[in-house]
Specification:
two-stranded antiparallel ribbon; 116 residues; globular; 7 strands; 4 helices; single chain; 2 domains; alpha+beta
Length: 116
């Protein structure tokens, strides 16, 4: 899962810093969703045609004032997923090889109730 010699790469855990001034749309904000006529069930849809349409509409409407959007993870609602369309504001913090014994993998497996 972590090593793909045929593809020529290994999985990496990359950490970035996003400055506080960067505006990220919060798709868990009920007021924002209401203001933009987006139903929460559409944000949570597994249908990528629906979710990509929402992202495109928000990028078109707000793209010049925002760097992307965030929402809850479908694996664990306490985790946040980000989709950024303006990555120039990101600063690379560190890159780590991702292995089955990496603390982040171990913690994620434990949180999801998965055996390693």
């Amino acid at each position: 899962m972590f090593h793909h010699p045929a593809a020529g790469f290994d999985r990496q855990l990359v950490t970035y810093d996003l400055p506080a001034k960067a505006r990220v749309i919060d798709l868990d904000d009920a007021r924002f969703l209401d203001d933009h006529h987006i139903r929460p069930s559409r944000v949570a849809s597994k249908n990528t045609v629906i979710t990509q349409d929402i992202a495109l509409r928000l990028h078109t409407d707000l793209g010049t004032t925002t760097v992307g959007l965030k929402w809850w993870s479908s694996l664990d609602a306490d985790w946040t997923s980000y989709a950024l369309w303006n990555r120039r504001l990101l600063t690379l913090e560190k890159i780590e090889p991702l292995t089955i014994t990496h603390p982040a993998v171990v913690a994620a497996a434990r949180r999801l109730g998965r055996r390693l």
